[in-house]
Amino acid sequence: MTTSATGDLRTRVAIIGAGPAGMLLSHLLASEGVESVVVESRSQEYVAGRIRAGILEQSTVDLLRSAGLADRLAREGHEHRGIYLQWPHERHHLDFVDLTGRSVWVYGQTEVQKDLVAARTAAGQQVHYEVSDTALHDVDTDHPSVTFADSDGRPRRVTAEVVVGCDGSFGPSRAAVPDGVRSTWEKTYPYSWLGILADVPPSTDELIYAWHPDGFAMHSMRSSTVSRLYLQVPNGTDAQSWSDDRIWESLATRLGHGQDGWQLTPGPITEKSVLPMRSYVQTPMRHGRLFLAGDAAHIVPPTGAKGLNLAVADVGLLAPALVDLLSKDDARLADAYSATALRRVWRCTHFSWWMTTMLHTSGDPFDEQLQLSQLRWVTSSAAGATGLAENYAGLPIGF
Ligand code: FAD
Ligand code: DHB
Q1: For residue 254, is it within any domain?
Q2: In this structure, which residue's CA is closest to atom 13 in ligand 1?
Q3: Which tens digits make up the pLDDT trace of 75-114?
Q4: Ligand found nearest the CA of 300
Q5: How far is the centre of ligand 2, averaged over its atoms, from the C-alpha of 70 (Å)?
Q6: Does any domain span residue 202?
């Protein structure tokens, strides 16, 4: 990387967004000798502190391991064999290891992000935090650039060989693909999640996904002392309008407190927020010298635990493609990136929609009967259970 007298930077890959996609990409590129500069609109602490995903699928764990990023994950993460699926008076365990030979890990996105930041900081990665006015230029030429104002308000420009948009669903990268080139597919759902973090040991050994006439509920966790739970709520719900008592009572009802002696233990709530649910896909994921990865190109509703895993899978494809393009002048993987990544994106988009519509109530009594029939099939048929397990535990990178 070089810096001119005016503060302009030159690098090989300009990465917009220091979330998991952007930081992992910078790490994988650096391990193959390809230098990058990352720009991020938020502070390092804000990005690391955002409470988001909690489940890593097998291929994500494999990739983090092979990248040398899984030491703490091995010590502090918890491997789960499967999940519980339930509806009133019935709880069934699906064992992904028996069904597919693959497992999942409980390890929060906050922890993944901290591990990435620690590794990149140790390696001297240049990350510009708290930038504003990020803009992309000349992405259909071979000298694309990104301009921004740095944290002191000074105008800066990074000129690169490639720009990668890892800037999530609100960043500027997806709109840098011209209108006539891009196609978008979108679906919003008529419900949201109220999520809480609580300082209480989980009341379950593995995650519980519960269908209930009052609405979906889920019991997840972050560690042996911290629980993460979710409730289906109407769109537009204000998290603060739900008292802690009302949250625990609703969770107890929907998760089946007292059913076959199972008890939900409440505890102090330390975080409360509402998450709207949306499916979104933008194609292509490459235009000229601009590549999109993670939430910048696609959003899934959280029910299948796919958002973070999909971002990691994109980067797992993109990093070797950029190494070949920039270090070996071989464009084959880069040319195939969008089509290859989109195969998995659409699989996960379908799975996330399928889990969401199976488990959330809409008030339509006909739909309820179909949901219950589907749940009975998924939990009693080897074919049904294996289909869910294969998608949840995750298909191999490159599927
Ligand atoms: P992000 O993590 O969004 O990172 C993008 C980065 O780009 C951000 O740091 C952002 O500040 C930065 N950026 C944006 N605009 C600019 C700009 N103009 N200039 C520079 N930088 C910019 N997934 C699950 O699997 N399970 C969950 O429970 C779950 N919960 C979620 C809860 C919330 C509230 C949200 C928003 C998402 C959740 N997700 C969940 C999805 C998952 O967290 C994302 O799929 C994952 O973070 C994607 O990583 P990413 O790096 O692509 O994008
Ligand atoms: C978590 C979130 C999910 O969307 C999911 O499907 C499973 C777990 C979590 O935050 O722990």
Answers
A1: no
A2: 167
A3: 999 999 999 999 999 999 999 999 999 999 999 999 999 9
A4: 1
A5: 20
A6: no
Q: Are 307 and 13 in contact (CB under 8 A)?
A: no
- Is 84 designated active site? no
CA 47 → CA 52, 116, 251, 320, 351, distances in Å? Answer: 10, 11, 29, 26, 27
DSSP state, residue 169 = T
Residue range(s) defining the domain that contains residue 283: 2-55+111-185+278-357
The most distant pair of C-alpha atoms in the chain lies apart, rounded to whole Å, by: 72
Which conformational region is residue 348 in: left (phi greater than 0), alpha (psi within -120 to 50 degrees), or beta?
alpha
Cα 378 from Cα 385, distance rounded (Å): 5
How many Å separate Cα 104 from the centre of its chain?
Answer: 14
In 3-state terms, what secondary structure has residue 25? helix
Tally of domains in the chain: 1
CATH of the domain at 161: 3.50.50.60
Give ∠ CA 62-68-70 in degrees, rounded to 5: 60
DSSP category for residue 306: -
pLDDT at 399: 67
Atom of ligand 2 at shortest range from CA of 220:
11
Q: Verify whether ligand 1 is closer than 6 Å to residue 311 (CB atom).
A: yes
**Residue 291 located in a structural domain:** yes
Residue with tokens 């998995």: 344
Active-site pick, 212, 298, 306, 360: 306
User: Does the C-beta of 168 come closer than 6 Å to ligand 1?
Assistant: yes
Distance CA 4, CA 100 (A): 54
pLDDT tens-digit profile of 124-143? 999 999 999 999 999 999 99
Identify any residues that bridge with 132 across adjacent strands, giving them in sequence order. 149
Binding site membership of 366 for ligand 1 (Cβ less than 6 Å)? no
Which tens digit of pLDDT belongs to each residue from 197-254?
999 999 999 999 999 999 999 999 999 999 999 999 999 999 999 999 999 999 999 9
Residue 165 lies in a domain: yes
Going through 199-315 in order, the beta strands assigned E by DSSP cover 208-210, 217-221, 227-234, 269-283, 286-287, 290-292, 298-299
Structure tokens at 116: 């990435």
Q: What is the spatial distance between Cα 267 and Cα 136, in angstroms, rounded to a whole number? A: 47
CB-CB contact of 38 with 15 (8 Å): yes
